[in-house]
Specification:
328 residues, 2 domains, flat
Length: 328
């Protein structure tokens, strides 16, 4: 147990969750290009607010006139992400300079630092490559991975006992892999603006299997320099992405429910198992409401947030089903 590292990693994990939710809000409110440059915003450390600042920014960026309500959202997201970078640096310092329990986290802490720095690059490319789908999805998945790593450090350095539950670790890992794949599908759906390509339930545009183009829908390599805001794919490609996400949602629901039901047999895992089952049911419901209510902003942001909480829940279960390193 390393109390200082535990508290700092737990705080950093909470900040990561906030960054993920705020990033979803920025993306879904179409503010991802609220600042056309990086790391500043129209050449400023904040964003243009005064009339003369807005006029100067519009002259410097004629293709992207200032929209203050979008610019401040993007910059607040960048500030919070920058705070997270500093927290991860501090975690690495504690991991390398702390007690033996802390030093056992050095490898994970170093990976988290490398990942968060790569996240900064992805944030820059999100802007400079004008919301290229693979970059947007990669930015989301990097955030989820950062949350998972920081949660692992927090859970493994905390005061909880870590008795190994024989046979359950493999099942938890399998559930985590399925969830990560579904989150990636969701990120790809959002990045390609395919969330409303099937506006009805349970069919898609009134058909059980409409015209689809999976090749175009899942082509990763895209032309550089194109503005991808609003999406560039046609309806069959977007429908293919949406249908794949729907199928993945059903598979994820069944796998996570089965995992939760199996874990209920152990008293030590019951709280996590219940949280997992309730969370995946809530996530499935939010997904249905996204379609039924035509993607309301609050519901769509909550869909991203619950996905992150499910990642953290499965990491907690993984920590509880993995043998704790031997004490000194």
């Amino acid at each position: 147990m390393s109390p200082a590292l535990h508290r700092l990693a737990l705080f950093a994990a909470v900040i990561t969750l906030c960054v993920i939710v705020l990033g979803a809000w920025v993306r879904l409110s179409h503010a991802g290009l609220g600042c056309p440059d990086w790391p500043g915003c129209y050449g400023k450390l904040t964003w243009p607010t005064e009339h003369h600042e807005v006029s100067a920014a519009n002259e410097a960026f004629p293709d992207r006139p200032v929209e203050v309500h979008k610019a401040w959202r993007e910059m607040v997201h960048r500030y919070l992400a920058g705070t997270l970078v500093l927290l991860v640096v501090a975690i690495n310092w504690l991991a390398w300079r702390g007690d033996r329990a802390a030093r056992q986290m050095r490898g994970i802490a170093a990976v988290a630092l490398g990942l968060i720095l790569f996240q900064a690059a992805l944030g820059m490319w999100t802007v400079t490559l004008k919301l290229m789908p693979i970059v947007v999805m990669g930015h989301l998945m990097g955030g989820m991975a950062t949350l998972g790593l920081l949660s692992w450090i927090a859970f493994r350095t905390g005061p909880l006992p870590y008795e190994r539950i024989t046979g359950m670790r493999t099942m938890v890992i399998a559930a985590l892999v399925v969830l990560v794949m579904q989150v990636a599908l969701g990120g790809w759906t959002s990045a390609n603006y395919a969330a409303l390509s099937c506006p009805d339930l349970p069919t898609c545009t009134g058909q059980w299997w409409p015209e689809t183009d999976f090749v175009a829908g899942f082509t990763v390599s895209r032309e550089v320099g194109v503005n991808y805001e609003g999406g560039i794919l046609d309806q069959p490609a977007r429908a293919a992405i949406h249908i794949a996400h729907r199928i993945g949602a059903i598979v994820t629901l069944l796998v996570l429910l089965a995992t939760g039901l199996r874990l209920l047999h152990w008293q030590e895992l019951r709280a996590g198992a219940l949280a997992l089952m309730l969370g995946v049911c809530a996530q499935f419901t939010l997904g249905l409401l996204n379609v039924h209510l035509k993607l309301p902003l609050a519901n769509a942001v909550a869909h991203n947030g619950v996905a992150a909480l499910l990642i953290a829940c499965l990491v907690w279960l993984l920590a509880r089903t993995t043998a704790r390193p031997a004490r000194p």
